[in-house]
Structure formats: C-alpha cells, structure tokens
Amino acid sequence: xxxxxxxLLLVSIAPGVSNQQKDGHYHWYYKRLSKEFDSxxxxxxxxxxxxxxxxxxxxxxxxxxRNGGHGFGPSKFRExxxxxxxxxxHLHRAPSGSATVCQFYDGSLHDISLLAYLAPLHPNxxxxxxxxxxxxxLDVLQRDRIVGRFLANRIHNAPxxxxxxxxxxxxxxxxxxxxxxxxxxxxxxxxxxxxxxKPRRDRRIDVAxxxxxxxxxxxxESLLSxxxxxxxxxxxxxxxxxxxxxxxxxxxxxxxxxxxxxxxxASSYKELLEDAKVxxxxxxxxxxxxxxxxxxxxxxxxxxxxxxxxxxxPALQIRSAILRNQVTFSPSRLDxxxxxxxxxxxxxxxxxxxxxxxxxxxFSDDMRERSREVRESPLTWGGGxxxxxxxxxxxxxxxxxxxxxxxxxxxRIANWIxxxxxxxxxxxxxxSRLSAGFRVPPGGRKGT
Length: 448
Fold this sequence. Notes:
Layout: E1 8-13, H1 25-37, E2 45-46, H2 74-92, E3 99-107, H3 111-118, E4 126-131, H4 134-143, H5 145-156, E5 162-166, H6 169-179, E6 183-185, E7 205-209, H7 214-226, E8 235-240, H8 244-249, E9 258-262, H9 266-275, E10 276-280, H10 295-302, E11 305-309, H11 321-326, E12 328-329, H12 334-345, H13 360-376, H14 389-395, H15 406-420, H16 422-436
Parallel strand pairs: 1-2, 1-3, 3-4, 4-5, 5-6, 7-8, 7-10, 8-9, 10-11, 11-12
Helix pairs in contact: 2-3, 3-14, 4-5, 4-6, 7-12
C-alpha cells in the first residue's frame, strides 16, 4: 500500500518584498519559491503590488504596507487587522489534505504582531518565523528590561504550531539563550539551480570579488594588488551600481580584469559563478557578524570555492574545521590572506565542500517536517499567547525601535497623541481659555 504524502504548500508573508530590485536576491528568492511550490492557483508569495513588478504572476498582491512594515497609530492598527484577515482568507483556500506552511522570512520586530494575530486562528498550519535582522532583535531582547522580557515570554510560550528560526548558528544560540525557546537553523538556500560543476581547468576566471561597500571594495583592491603583476590573474568584480562611481574616480584603473554591475540577470549571475575558481566574499559589514548570505551557497553549489572572513557568521556554516580554515581569512592580515588565496586558485581539484552547501531540497524537507509535526501532534497552547496577544505586541511596537531610550519613546508617543488627536487639541485650547479667565493681573483685577 502506497504511503500518502500530502503536497507541501508554502505561503510567504512579505509585505515589503516588492520594494526590492527586480533582479536582486529577494526577487530570485521568492521566484524560486513560486517555481517550486505554486500550483492549483495557490500563490506562494503575497505582497503589495508595485509598478516595477507589474506582470509578475508569482505572488498575490493583496497586502498593505506603509513605511516598510513599520509604524504606529490607528492606520497601522487597521493595516494589521486587514492583512491578517486577507491572509486568513488566503490560507482557507488551500486544498484539503495539503501540508500548508506559512513563513515570515523577514521576521522583523513589527511582524511579530501579525504572527501573533494569525497563529491562534490557524492551529493546523505550521508558522515559521525567521528572526531578521538579528541585530535588531538582540538589541531589544538584551537592552530593554520590560519589553525584552515581554517578548522573550511570548516567544518562549508560543503555541505548538509556531517555529522560530535564525539564519546563523551564532544568532540562533544568542536568541535561544535570551528567550529559553527552541530556535532552529533557517536554510538560506541558493536561489539558483546549478547542475554538474564545471571542471576547474575550464573556468576562465581565477578569482571573482563581490564587495558591497566602499570599505570592502578598497580591501579587495588591496588584496588584488598583492596577488601578483597586473594581468597575471583573470579577475572580475561584481559591485552594486553605487560603487561604480568610486571605481571611475580612481586614477590608473582599478586593477580588475572585468567589472560587472549588480544586480545581474539570473543567467549572467550563474555564468559568473560557474566560470570562477574562487569567489571572495569580504563580509566586512557589521550585519555579517550575525546574518547570513545566499552567496556562500551559490558558490558551493556552483563549484566555486567561497573565501570569506573567519569571524563572520556565514563561515560557521562550514561544519568541518579543516575545510573552514582553508576557505577563511583574517581581513587585517592581507599578506597571509593573499598567500592563502593563491593556494586556492592553484588547486587542480576543487575542495570537497559537498554537503556544506544548503540546497532548496534542504529547505523544503525542513518545511515539510514542521508541517508534519503540526498535523500529527495535538495542539497545546502556551501561557503567553491568546487571541489578544497581538494587540499587546502592537501597543508596545514603539518600544521595538532600535537605539530608542525610554525618554525618546515617551516623547514620540506624546507627540503622536498631540498631533493625531484633534479632540485633545480642542480640549487644550478650551482649558487655556478657561484658565485665562481666572488669572489675576498685577493690578489685582480679574481679567475679562
């Protein structure tokens, strides 16, 4: 007798995804989801429709989003209620017998309100919440006693159909320690599909660089200058358009054999990785102390060797300590880094990184397992969640802003009340006139 395996359907809550560049990482990430999951008219992504993405059919443009998903006040309150109701209707349209998973890939501080709204309404659906960006979450959980404890309690006592995730093991351990909750590893899969890796002898690019900031670009140029005489190596650099001006200002050229400006089309990006022997990922930004990147998996699955800072969170994805030492470097030790990079370029055979990359199958298998747990286990509710939890989270949302002191928060709330409430302003004018009638001028006579 054949075992019935329900079809996995994924709904990704992403109000702000449409604000991303059309050919950028987010576009590929959600489009890959659609390609794998979208069937029977059931959209895998739901977000607000924008002019730049008109004509796309891989999401359901039904959500409202103001200020990038942040904000406070009656309009934001109505937005959460409306979005929650629309998503609920969407979830009810899932075919019977399917395994449905609802994920918040960009699980921001504000999105926790929407999660708390939806999860109690759909106890048979698995909800995935990925803490992102991690630094914002740690700032709140560590800094603020009242709000940090409130959120930690809600996270720790989440219902059984809610699963929390972090993109790196470093962030996972920190949030788990602060909340006492089980936090899983989120599989930041490669958004591209790679087939058999091209042999190293057929790869035309010795080293490709992928800096994102001026600091990273300057570091890459310094490293390139140590690799040998100009022209000895074939190098390419992939930069965002904002750095193109920086390169053009340099006298005597940049030293790179070729310059490509991101975002590239999917085919051009795949071609670059499949032609590169080594992909240098500087990762000097503060974000990468906790955050991950899909490029490390793109490199591994394409057959290119990723080369990244040893102290960055993405480096911890490579479980083998021996392999990790071979493909990581200390940014401050340029001479040592250059020597290590030369050895990687000169390898006749690629390093055995098989099993270190995260594939889409790893992601889908994990989502399927979470759905199975929810469908097969009786639901038990934790003490920190009920049908009104989302309201309390929303009321405290002004406190969920990073780098906000209690004095600033109080001032923001007071300013909002004063500017938004005409009733309070009218009452203020009335009391001013009333008090003026009782003032006694210096001469002793009551004012008229």
